[in-house]
């Protein structure tokens, strides 16, 4: 029961933060859209390389080459370098997991037995990755 309460509270807190961040991230122009797409490319490329070579085995130059950008452009998107990229990957992954948990919690009916609700929640959590 304590675990479910913890997740509910965390979910509500993260949900409010995610909503506030989502407003900031909406691309307004085609240039903003290109920048958002480039940022996603950089993060995906870094994930691929971190998975293959590890964090310490991946250099900024490797990420640049993998994504096809110049050395300076990567620092434009991530001034904190490789550490900021890693933190962004974790943060966005956590936000996605919290959104998934919010949806799972919303699908639980008020009069549903606790055991059924927990089973539904845990199966949904496992299925979402």
Q: Any overview of this molecule?
A:
This protein has 129 residues and is mostly helical. The protein has a single domain, classed as Tetracycline Repressor, domain 2. Helix content is 80%, strand content 0%. The chain contains six helices and no strands. It has helices at 2-25, 30-53, 60-67, 71-77, 81-106, 114-127. The longest helix is centred in the C-terminal third of the chain and has 26 residues, at 81-106. The radius of gyration is 18 Å and the shape is elongated. Mean pLDDT is 83; it is low at 4-9 and 15-23.
Describe the largest sheet: none
Q: Helical region count?
A: 6
Q: What order do the helices and strands follow? A: HHHHHH
What name is given to the CATH topology?
A: Tetracycline Repressor, domain 2
CATH architecture: Orthogonal Bundle
Q: What would the average pLDDT be, to the nearest integer? A: 83
Q: How many individual β-strands?
A: 0
Assigned CATH class = Mainly Alpha
Helix content: over 70%
Sequence stretches where pLDDT stays below 50 over 5 or more residues: 4-9, 15-23
Which structural class do the helices and strands define? mainly alpha
Task: Please render the helix and strand layout as text.
Blueprint: H1 2-25, H2 30-53, H3 60-67, H4 71-77, H5 81-106, H6 114-127
Helix pairs in contact: 1-5, 2-3, 2-5, 5-6
Provide keyphrases for this structure.
129 residues, mainly alpha, Tetracycline Repressor, domain 2, 6 helices
